[in-house]
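REQUEST
  id: r-88c1
  op: predict_structure
  target: Glycogen debranching protein GlgX
  payload:
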Amino acid sequence: MTSNGVRMDRYPTHSIKGVKFRAGHALPFGTSLIPGGVNFSVYSNHATACTLVLFEKGAREPRLEIPLPEAFRTGNVWSITVFDLDIEMLEYGYRMEGPFQPERGHRFDSSKVLLDPYARAVGGRDRWLTPQEPGTPYPFRSSMLFEDFDWEDDIPPDLPMEDLVIYETHVRGFTRHSSSGVRAPGTFAGLKEKIPYLKALGVNCVELMPIFEFDEWEHSRRLPDGSLTVNYWGYSTMAFFAPKAGYAATGHMGMQADELKTLVKALHAEGIEVILDVVFNHTNEGNELGPTLSFRGLDNKTYYMLTPDGRYYNFSGCGNTLNCNNPVVRSMVLDCLRYWVAEYHIDGFRFDLAAILNRDQNGAPLTNPPLLETLAFDPILGRTKLIAEAWDPGGLYQVGSFPNYGRWAEWNGPYRDTLRRFLTGEEGQVAPMTQRVEGSPDLYWWRATNASINFITSHDGFTLYDLFAYSQKHNLANGEDNRDGENNNISWNCGFEGETNDPEINALRLRLVRNAYAILMTSQGVPLIVAGDEFGRTQKGNNNAYCQDNEISWLDWTLAEKNADLLRFVRGMIHLRRDHPILRKRTVYGRGGGAPYPQLSFHGTRPWYLDRSGYNRVLAWMLEGETADGTPDAVYVAVNMYWDGLQFVLPACPGNREWRVAANTSLPSPQDFREPGTETPLETPGEIIVGPRSVMVLVST
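RESPONSE
  id: r-88c1
  status: 200
  body:
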């Protein structure tokens, strides 16, 4: 019997050059072990012939090519079982014959050996930035993995969505810098060594930028100054089922899967979930001038959105757009995510440019997109977090209206933009700020607050420190004459562009960073922070470091020591959020709390009165409820974005308790954050002075 329960007679019926084979099973797609051999199955609706190409691992030329007889075709699926293969030394691909008629959407080219879309591993990029031998005819080959990892008793943490504090990071950049102090810099193993740091910081979810196999040499260039630009971020997928071998210290030994699984297992042991940033909106095959590596040569018309004259729709901004609501492509996406959940114990996925997943084959938005609905109700993905970047470069912006089926959360772009405007002192932001700190009921009033992923910075754009150090982007290092990257950054350099020795400017910048964290951690919704922001990482004003595999992108861990006071404050605010469940309620919409206080109330410098006029730069809010053990609890947050200090008269503390100061960003460390039990009593009961451009957080005791 095979692994899928189908009876398999083990005898071959054909042979070529001593290699024996027979007709295979159409399902499952990809490769699967059967008694005595390997089953290969690949889909193509329009191919007229299929040849399986077998390589010895690392060999320049194929070992054997097996044309599949027409009898090995079931519907539009070609399948073959090959016997007596050395799995550990096996690499393979396909040649597909068919029409080359671009105007009709067909781009078959039998000179190309194509990657299997379901390949569990890919050869050719086993070590990061290993130069490819010039003239290599078949640089990328599919290979198999043994799914024999011992997970022991690993159980995903399955944390409530609203309890997450998400930490976005790049696997390589997190530990590649010499200051990281790990044994295997820039790898899954290196990240594993930093788990104690993550645990101490208080984050309970790591979101990894793309780890599916991609080609870091894609679009690489040597610039006139000698620097090299590469595909560093990895938002250009080559193989959706294969972990990036170049991110594994053991990738050259074919152990990348085990190394990644060991990382996930270790994170789970510390109660930390793992979310993968996945890119199903396009592939690395680009536009009409791009390479033929897999999908284009297998069945271009099925896998990509094409115009009537056979050109590529480019809703992704990267040359092509996957046809995700085609039934075949939709099934591949579902199979892929199921595989990562079942075999890698992944806890969730963040979908890059997810609005594209809502388009039909002609690019029109769908009212009920089959893919999104399928993912929402799939039983294997039933406990998996699904997070959408709910826009695309084609102009489809769906924040607040993304088809969610009660399952999807969204990156909240308006949260980012409103907080940036408020923190940098723009007028007219108090009214929208009330929406953002409440969980954006203007966007999600009919959903839980955990539909909103709140962020101020992400991998794309300025770091949090640079947000207050640069008013303009500085992307010359990318080699595109500063044309790339976002122009509207909603940033403020605090009076000087870039680094300065002015102590007042430097103090103001770090205070604004503290303000950002104080507001983020006291807002309803799910906070997302970016690795290194907690200790003042800078990219020197580069807001589009997608191609920078160097110290522009790598985390400089010496900053954790230099800015230890900032790191201490951020750690404190994350733990304060953890200790006060009222900061992460599933719903506070309508603010209908118990008498005499609502769950959430807004205030100004006077209690129970908020000036919503355009010129106001003051906002306060109070949350009332209980701690995890049922003890009455309240938190009051006062934000003053004026350039002078202001007096705030406080609302009475609920439950006949008293207010104490937990955080005050206008004070030096360690007074800026007080550990639980050491909060500062008020100097004058019933009122506080909130310093210029600063935030105070009070808790009830």
